[in-house]
Amino acid sequence: MIKVITSAERHTSNREWIHSEFSFSFADYDDPSNAHFGALLAHNDNELSPGQGMHEHPHHDLEIITYVVSGVLKHQDDLGNHAELQGGSVQVMSAGTGINHSETNPSDSANARFLQIWLLPDQPGRQPKWDAKFYPAEHKTNTLLPVASGNGEEGALEINENVTIYLSSLERSRALKYQQREDRRTHIYLISGNLEIACSDGVFQLQPGDAARIRKSCDLNLKGTGSDSNAEFVLIDLP
Question: How does pLDDT run along the chain (239 residues), one tens digit per residue?
Fold first, then answer.
């Protein structure tokens, strides 16, 4: 089964300092029928204005993965970690027993666009930790690049859940096949470009901001179809 959630169906939160599109119930968007997809609790597409940010605040018992699409995102936490994450960077934060952090845009002229993904951990009460890594654009071109995983994927940042997050950027007419397992879920979110998903359920065309929630389907054929830019997307394999 493939369910496409269009960009227009997301919840928009538009404040002076940050514009957010929520794929799941989050913050001021309360929808019990759209609270999660398996272990996936939140998938937010954020645009943070120059010099603005989310000042220090706490989390616990969450796996928080951030992908910086463009611009720079500055991270600080009470574990002593601090970094300025360039576009193409992925950050993982296991909140565990508790962590306080801030995320700000240090630029005085450019917005910072970033995706933030919240997952339930495999168990509560773990020690908090943080890590980040930059992934060059060519490493995700016409392939599925694992960037965060609880399954020991080579080169991926470690998280505490049986989930793997992939990044990909498909050139026009380039295609990938992804084997959908019967006992797993797949969440695909299109960041930019145009993407075609085909399987025995049919053929689905995704535009930027669209997502596909997939369960018990056949092998997925993913194809870049845009003429202006690559189809950049996130694919999450989860229980």
Answer: 899 999 999 999 999 999 999 999 887 788 888 889 999 999 999 999 999 999 999 999 999 999 999 999 999 999 999 999 999 999 999 999 999 999 999 999 999 999 999 999 999 999 999 999 999 999 999 999 999 999 999 999 999 999 999 999 999 999 999 998 888 999 999 999 999 999 988 999 999 999 999 998 778 999 999 888 999 999 999 99
pTM of this prediction? 0.96
Instruction: Compute how many other C-beta atoms are within 10 angstroms of the C-beta atom of residue 34.
Output: 17
- Give counts: helices (H), strands (E), the chain: 0, 22
DSSP state of 126: P
Nearest residue to 21 via CA among 32, 31, 9: 9
Q: How far apart are CA 206 and CA 176, in angstroms?
A: 15
Report the alpha-carbon distance of residue 43 to residue 116 in Å, rounded. Answer: 6
Residue 133 burial by Cβ neighbours in a 10 Å radius (0-12, 13-18, 19+): middle
> CB–CB of 106/74 below 8 Å?
yes
Helix (H, G, I), strand (E, B) or coil at 58: strand
